[in-house]
Amino acid sequence: MAPSKQRKKRRPRTEKQTKKVLFSEAINYLLQRSFDLRSTDPDLSREYIQSAKKMGMRGRFHLPKPFRQLYCHKCLAPFTSDTTKVRLNSKKKQIHYLCLLCRSEHRFGYHK
Questions:
Q1: What is the dihedral of CA 51, 54, 60, 64, to 10 degrees?
Q2: Phi, psi for 104 (deg, rounded to 5)
């Protein structure tokens, strides 16, 4: 006779877990809105990015990786064709972003 399979009871979420879920949903919403508005209203987009970063610091977790690579970390301007110069370095497998507003350079690696 096979042992009966019983489902484990889920523990209710703690207050810490619910805060983390709420923070991550709010940050994702703010970042999504900022990248939707980056070509029409860059100042409002910059404010959304700034508030999302503050929420991330308050909740003690990083922004999602796809969003981290889409804005300048120095002046918080979203990368667009007007504000950025993009170059590829195939030897080092890197993408170089040059922000034309603050002249800072950002490098992100990529794989095949």
A1: 40
A2: -95, 150
Helix, strand, coil share of the chain (percent; to 5)? 40, 15, 45
Q: What is the pTM of this model?
A: 0.76
Which pLDDT tens digit goes with each residue over 37-95? 998 998 999 999 999 999 999 888 888 888 888 899 999 999 989 999 999 999 999 99
The closest alpha carbon to 76, from 54, 58, 108, belongs to: 54
Per the rule left: phi > 0, alpha: psi between -120 and 50, beta: everything else, 93 is left
Tokens of 68: 């981290």
The structure tokens 């977790």 sit at 61
Reduced to 3 states (helix: H, G, I; strand: E, B; else coil), residue 67 is: helix
pLDDT higher than 80, residue 11: no
For 77, the token pair is 């301007």
